[in-house]
Write a structure and sequence with these properties.
about 475 residues; alpha/beta; TIM Barrel; three-stranded mixed sheet
């Protein structure tokens, strides 16, 4: 576990920003990107989630999730699709594992569907669900691929939402703890890398005015699960437990002090909301000051439980935006969401110019320098903890007018990963950041939440019109060559 001290200051943040601006161009020119350039033991893998990949939503005793209900509600998904079949990895995992092995990947990050283990969220254990994940884990290991398991990737059992409004109730802490311990019991002899949650910053937003309460319960659920693992399983299983949090990098829109402060607050309300309590035992001071009584308080015992409850920090990073001080605070008084509460206006444009080339998603601008800046920020603020990049990638549009042969030529994706990995390597070798792994989102094109099938993040093209056949994009060949390079 990490026992880390806080050592962040505005001066350091400013210095970091100036340093990056002066050296990034030279860095990109001088580093030859090879797998052997990364530290020994550095892990490369691909990532997925149960609801986006598995399908088989009514098979083998799986219970309904909140996303099953949401996706079948009118007007919720751009293309009116759902993930009842998704990319059918529930039935095709053996073949998909061969794709990973052929590329030379070390690991596969996937999530367990809570409702496959406990169809009602608690109570009856579904042995068929346990059997499925045992088979998946065993198949990965048989092919030399290490399983990295996320316990919760947004797909809450609908029964718990109906019973007590899900993450708004503290009852969920005990139910999640039971679920987590069951997974440790059933799979922990082979799974050595666990993530309790994926992107809590994102999924608690669905609770609207209760989002800070939901986030509070998520943090306590994480710390409780970690405590169970340490006391009952870590000694025998020798595994590690972390959490995967999402974070943009924010650059001040100007050199004005108020905008530098705004960028700092934006990071604290995004990344710090969930990492600060797990490292320091409480929320960032800026959140306490600006959110006031709407932000719950931890008891002394809870703070002790939270502090240091991480073996590593998982970071899902895709993009960088600008941050500017919200001098009017008009949006803050009206919206009462986290970014409004931060007092920062965040945009991917400055003076009418985008911060980088845009991918398909409206929010995803390609700014490779951001990953290096973010790694250095984490190093400085949190005392250089072990970090795993648990997601990084970009999407292309799913156009019905684009022939498959053209869709497979994804030079933009190749450049994205080359440039982000180059900057990540610089953060490790030149700056001393403690980064241990990198997971591509994603192995396959898949169902992308509200975007449905309109967005393609995969290294492999999935033909939704022809039995979900997988075709390697050019980025597959690039990764295969990169991972074999010495």
């Amino acid at each position: 576990m990490l026992r880390l001290r806080r050592c962040m200051s505005l001066v350091l943040l400013t210095g970091v920003l100036i340093f990056w601006e002066n050296c990034l161009a030279a860095t990109n020119d001088c580093i030859a990107l090879k797998r052997s350039s990364f530290p020994k033991g550095f892990v490369f893998g691909t990532a997925s989630s149960a609801y986006q990949y598995e399908g088989a939503v009514k098979e083998d005793g799986r219970g309904q999730t909140i996303w099953d209900k949401f996706a079948h509600s009118s007007g919720t998904v751009v293309d009116s699709s759902n993930a009842d079949v998704a990319v059918d990895q529930y039935h095709r995992f053996d073949d998909d594992i061969k794709l990973m092995k052929d590329m030379g990947m070390d690991a596969y990050r996937f999530s367990i569907a809570w409702s496959r283990i406990f169809p009602d969220g608690s109570g009856h254990l579904n042995q068929a669900g346990v059997d499925h994940y045992n088979n998946l884990i065993n198949a990965l290991l048989a092919n030399g691929i290490e399983p990295y398991v996320t316990l919760y990737h947004w797909d809450l059992p609908q029964a718990l939402e109906d019973k007590y409004q899900g993450w708004l109730s503290s009852q969920i802490i005990d139910d999640f703890a039971t679920y987590a311990e069951t997974c440790f019991q059933k799979f922990g002899d082979r799974v050595k890398q666990w993530m309790t949650f994926n992107e809590p910053h994102s999924f608690v937003q669905e609770y609207d005015v209760g989002l800070y309460i939901a986030g509070h319960n998520v943090l306590l659920a994480h710390a409780t699960a970690m405590d169970i693992y340490i006391k009952n399983y870590k000694g025998k299983q020798q595994g590690s437990v972390g959490i995967s949090v999402d974070s943009f990098w924010y650059e001040p829109a100007t050199n004005l002090t108020e905008d530098i402060h705004a960028a700092q607050r934006a990071l604290e309300f995004f990344l710090g909301w969930f990492v600060d309590p797990l490292v320091f035992g409480d929320y960032p001071t800026s959140m306490r000051t600006r959110v006031g009584c709407r932000l719950p308080r931890f008891s002394k015992a809870e703070s002790i439980l939270l502090k240091g409850s991480l073996d590593f920090v998982g970071i899902n990073h895709y993009t960088t935006w600008y941050a500017k001080n919200n001098s009017t605070n008009i949006t803050g008084s009206l919206l009462r969401d986290t970014m409004s509460d931060s007092g920062a206006v965040t945009l991917p444009f400055r003076n009418g110019k985008p911060i980088g080339v845009r991918a398909n998603s409206k929010w995803l601008y390609i700014v490779p320098r951001g990953i290096r800046s973010l790694m250095n920020y984490i190093k400085t603020r949190y005392g250089n903890p072990p970090v795993i990049i648990t997601e990084n990638g970009m999407d292309d549009p799913n156009s019905p007018f684009t022939p498959i042969k053209i869709a497979l030529k994804d030079e933009k994706r190749i450049k994205y990963h080359n440039d982000y990995l180059t900057n990540l390597l610089a953060s490790i070798k030149e700056d001393g950041c403690n980064v241990k792994g990198y997971f591509v989102w994603s192995l396959l094109d898949n169902w992308e939440w509200e975007s449905g099938y309109t967005s393609r993040f995969g290294l492999y093209f999935v033909d939704y019109k022809d039995k979900l056949k997988r075709y390697p994009k050019d980025s597959v060949h690039w990764f295969k060559n990169f991972l074999a390079s010495t």
